[in-house]
Specification:
The protein is mainly β. It has a single domain, classed as YmcC-like fold, CATH 2.40.360. The protein is 0% helix and 58% strand. The protein has no helices and 18 strands. The strands form two sheets. The chain has a 16-stranded antiparallel β-sheet that branches. A two-stranded antiparallel ribbon has the order 13-14. Strand 15 and strand 16 form a beta hairpin. The two termini are 28 Å apart.
Length: 199
């Protein structure tokens, strides 16, 4: 798959085994830093989006023990191993613990296309759309390094992919690092502290 988004007419699977973004059911990754906690859990749940069965991955974010956001993200893997992103449901929480917004929620279909979250074979300089919902979610990513040694509280990893993510809607950028056979180990200021492997 060589384009900047995924082709929704592809054949997809919910058994996601891309080396840098494996999503086996039951896997949970925890990242911490600067008072923040990010917990990513691969659920035993399927959501059909734009006619495609996708794997549901929950992302929980909290600051100093107070929940900030919980999202349910929809992923499927194309035949060539590309992990495609079909959208997300978003709950953003206020200080009183109640949901105050669903900003950034989107789904593939209509005028929205599934984005690329992890290429089948990352190459430095490769750029792509992670989200393709005009005016709502337009995150872009670019592979900026391969094979760098990255140390996090959970261990040291030699085979990694580093990506620079950019949100053109607000101009924000952040760096993410993915390790082979693990997935996300660095998300800007948070680093992996714990991994629970799935089936």
């Amino acid at each position: 798959m060589s384009g900047s988004v995924c082709d929704p007419s592809e054949t997809f699977t919910t058994d996601i085994d891309n080396p840098f973004m494996p999503l086996p059911v039951g896997r949970r990754i925890e990242l911490r830093g600067n008072g923040l906690l990010v917990r990513i859990s691969v659920l035993d749940a399927i959501e059909t989006v734009a006619g495609v069965d996708t794997r549901v991955v929950e992302e929980y974010e909290a600051a100093d023990g107070r929940v900030l956001e919980i999202s349910r993200n929809f992923f499927a893997q194309a035949q060539d191993g590309t992990v495609c992103y079909f959208g997300e449901e978003v709950d953003i929480y206020g200080e009183n613990g109640e949901v105050t917004s669903h900003a950034g929620a989107w789904r593939a279909g209509g005028g929205n296309a599934p984005g690329i979250f992890m290429p089948s074979s990352p190459q430095v300089g490769r750029a792509f759309q992670q989200e393709s919902a005009p005016g709502i979610a337009e995150d872009q990513s670019k592979v900026v390094a391969l094979g760098e040694r990255t140390e996090v509280p959970a261990g040291t990893f030699e085979d990694t992919v580093t990506m620079l993510d950019r949100n053109p809607l607000d101009g924000s950028e952040d760096t993410k690092v993915y390790a082979r056979d693990i997935g996300l180990i660095v998300d800007e200021s948070v680093r992996m502290t714990r991994l629970i492997s799935g089936a």
